[in-house]
Design a protein that fits this description.
Strand order of the largest sheet: 3-2-7-24-25-26
Bound molecules: zinc ion
Oligomer: single chain
Structural class: alpha/beta
Length: 531
């Protein structure tokens, strides 16, 4: 071979995610492709005068990470609001909000994101911090928000006007006044729709900033788990400008009010197949979350049985109608399901769609699967449905004091975040973060996946192994977006999306995994991050 490589990585511990050639020492890259995978000696043939040689120093090199569940544009806009993830008390909240309000004096609104539950619950508590400007703060999981009185007034929802909400609850006191707590999207949007979005230039800046942060953690592709043509175009504009450093797969969000005719937009999105930006899928929400009593459960909530059995966002018939239409158009379907009732209904729906439309290589998926009944676990394999899970959503231990285990109750703990059991039942599994619900840093997800503690000694051990987690973030995630022949493995001819870590990951003890970090990230043969 007379040609020389643009980049040569030598002396690395290469985890290729390729079963027929699982480990290697050296990788050569030419243009945007991997041209050689093998040992140091073999790599010498690719060394030329212009070749940049990177000494891997015995550290792990893997395919670039694919986070199969994020909210990228929302998240990047969110980065421009007050950051409340670290807030642990009302005092903390006051400090962060007042500081942010001071820095954004020319804006009308004060908006914050990422707060935990149970720090505020009423508008009066927010009024005590700021009352002369409208304030809205969103929970870390995006399913609940809190507004001050001024914001509720501006939205016209302070008094009960009897408005109907298919997917939302404005919590009211005994006099019918809004308490300040807004549950699920329709209720949150009553306020949030008034907040002006950043203009196109600012959006683009925020997006680039967010993508750079992803690259810094070794992520080279994401599945953006909601979207429309406008959002797809925001990403496409970055690619057109030659400024895109991450591959983004963008499903069309099918809402309960979406009509079959609206799916034309999804079909248009599916035609967009650029190098970095692609459509071709549809996203549904079957339910909300356990924390806000909106997860579609088969049995009542443990801490408040009066909350009863929650209705799903789509009835079975409605889901089958819309999902079947998407399936007929050749689209992949992803459904948010946190409750065991939602998981079962989505599986039932996929089964019905196969009966209606016939079997094809559809790779439909279920997102989250926070509680899953044992009899539903083998159905993922039987129906060819992908389990898309986010390990860091599981409370690491009971000591964290998270609401989640209390809501769900001890009886359902063995069925909670049951990665091991679902995988053992044969499900194809991929991993992600659901950023901004949780941090996107894969090391945090690896850490929880490797080390999560049992909440009760009798609970089954749901931990996964490092190779299982790495495969779920690379090869198996590429399969989920029908790109298993292009990326997700370090293999000759594949796209040069790679990440070099600070350590040999396999030499670290599982509990030490978080001490490792990405030190070099390559997308499409370009180094987009280097420590
Ligand atoms: Zn999500």
């Amino acid at each position: 071979m007379s040609q020389s490589a643009d980049i040569l990585v030598t002396n690395a511990k290469v985890f290729t995610s390729n079963e027929t050639n699982p480990n290697a020492q050296a990788v050569a890259i030419k243009g945007n492709r991997i041209v050689f995978v093998g040992n140091n000696q073999g790599a010498e043939a690719w060394r030329g005068d212009q070749t940049r040689v990177i000494d891997g120093q015995g550290r792990t090199l893997t395919p670039g990470f694919i986070d199969t569940h994020v909210h990228l544009l929302w998240g990047s806009i969110w980065m421009g609001t007050a950051q409340l993830q670290e807030v642990r008390s009302r005092e903390d909240l006051k400090k962060v909000l007042l500081d942010f309000a001071d820095k954004s004096k020319t804006d009308v609104w004060v908006v914050g994101r990422g707060i935990r539950y149970s720090i505020v619950s009423t508008c009066q508590e927010l009024d005590e911090i700021i009352s002369d400007r409208p304030v809205y703060i969103g929970a870390y999981d995006g399913h609940t928000g809190w507004a001050n009185t001024k914001a509720l007034e501006m939205a016209g929802i302070l008094q009960n006007d009897g408005r109907e909400m298919p997917n939302g609850i404005i919590v009211r006191d005994e006099n019918g006044s809004a308490s300040g707590e807004l549950r699920e999207s329709d209720a949150m949007r009553a306020v949030m729709d008034l907040v002006p979005l950043p203009d196109a230039d600012r959006k683009r800046e925020l997006l680039k900033l967010a993508i750079h942060e992803f690259n810094k953690t070794g992520i080279t592709s994401v599945h953006n788990m909601n979207g429309d043509m406008e959002e797809l175009m925001a990403y496409a504009a970055l690619e057109d400008a030659g400024e895109m450093n991450m591959r983004v797969y963008v499903p069309y969000h099918v809402r309960p009010e979406t009509k079959e005719a609206d799916l034309k937009e999804a079909a248009e999105m599916a035609k967009v197949q650029m190098d970095y930006v692609r459509g071709g899928a549809a996203k549904f929400f079957m339910d909300g979350v356990w924390e806000s009593y909106t997860a579609f459960n088969l049995d009542p909530y443990a801490d408040d049985p009066s909350a009863g059995i929650v209705s799903p966002i789509f009835s079975f018939e409605h889901f089958v109608e819309m999902a079947s239409a998407c399936d007929k158009m050749g689209m992949q379907i992803a459904v948010h399901c946190c409750g065991d009732g939602a998981v079962r209904q989505a599986l039932d729906g996929y089964e019905r769609i196969q009966q209606l439309n016939g079997n094809r290589d559809s790779r439909h998926r279920i997102e989250h699967i926070e509680v899953c009944q044992p009899e539903d676990m083998p159905r993922f394999k039987e129906l060819g449905v992908i389990a898309s899970m986010q390990t860091s959503h599981a409370p690491f231990s009971l000591a964290e004091g998270d609401l989640w285990p209390t809501r769900v109750g001890e009886e359902r703990w063995p069925l909670s975040f049951a990665w091991r059991d679902i995988k053992n039942a044969g499900a194809h599994m991929c991993f992600g973060s659901d950023w901004t619900v949780a941090p996107f840093d894969p090391m945090i997800n690896l850490h929880v996946g490797l080390n999560r503690e049992k909440w009760s000694p009798d609970d089954p051990d749901q931990r996964l192994t490092l190779p299982e987690l790495l495969l779920g973030y690379t090869r198996d995630a590429a399969y989920v977006e029908f790109k298993e022949n292009e990326k997700g493995q370090i293999k000759e001819g594949y796209l040069a999306d790679l990440v070099l870590f600070s350590h040999d990951l396999f030499e670290l003890k599982p509990e030490e995994i978080r001490s490792a970090r990405a030190v070099l990230t390559m997308v499409d043969g370009r180094i987009v991050y280097e420590e």
